[in-house]
């Protein structure tokens, strides 16, 4: 399969393992866009499959960074016009188990328990390590407080 085949495949959402398929500068730009990018209204996708994939990847990135994602934030990030379209996308992502969570129609948001991860650049690893170390210190502090009670 080619890089475009994986990009357009509705089962593929992580692309780092296909880096070996990057042969040209155009391939590199395409790889970077789908591995690390988010929706951009200035980009004209060659087909609906690629456009929908980028919308899904953008939603996944929002879900990775937040426990609750509002429909408004999805609408703004993905440049979508219809709340019904957003809800249908979220239902599809939950059914495919790309996102584990619940839709709250009253609050207009998606409550996330977990979701699949996006690709990570090597340059992002130090910041991720720092976040994990910070969480570890918080948990350690909480554990000490609980012992004192």
From TrEMBL:
<protein>
    <recommendedName>
        <fullName>PCI domain-containing protein</fullName>
    </recommendedName>
</protein>
<dbReference type="InterPro" id="IPR000717">
    <property type="entry name" value="PCI_dom"/>
</dbReference>
<keyword id="KW-0736">Signalosome</keyword>
<dbReference type="Pfam" id="PF01399">
    <property type="entry name" value="PCI"/>
</dbReference>
<feature type="domain" description="PCI">
    <location>
        <begin position="1"/>
        <end position="117"/>
    </location>
</feature>
<dbReference type="GO" id="GO:0008180">
    <property type="term" value="C:COP9 signalosome"/>
</dbReference>
<comment type="similarity">
    <text>Belongs to the CSN7/EIF3M family. CSN7 subfamily.</text>
</comment>
<dbReference type="InterPro" id="IPR045237">
    <property type="entry name" value="COPS7/eIF3m"/>
</dbReference>
């Amino acid at each position: 399969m080619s890089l475009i085949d994986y990009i357009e495949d509705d089962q593929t959402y992580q692309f780092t393992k296909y880096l070996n398929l990057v042969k040209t500068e155009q391939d590199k730009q395409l790889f970077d866009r789908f591995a690390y990018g988010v929706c951009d209204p200035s980009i004209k996708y060659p087909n609906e499959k690629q456009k929908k994939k980028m919308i899904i990847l953008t939603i996944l990135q929002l879900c990775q960074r937040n426990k609750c994602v509002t429909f408004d934030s999805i609408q703004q990030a993905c440049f979508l016009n219809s709340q019904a379209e957003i809800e249908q996308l979220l239902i599809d992502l939950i059914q495919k188990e790309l996102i584990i969570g619940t839709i709250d129609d009253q609050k207009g948001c998606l409550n996330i328990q977990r979701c699949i991860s996006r690709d990570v650049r090597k340059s992002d690893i130090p910041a991720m390590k720092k976040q994990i170390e910070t969480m570890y210190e918080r948990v350690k502090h909480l554990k000490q407080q609980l012992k004192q009670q």
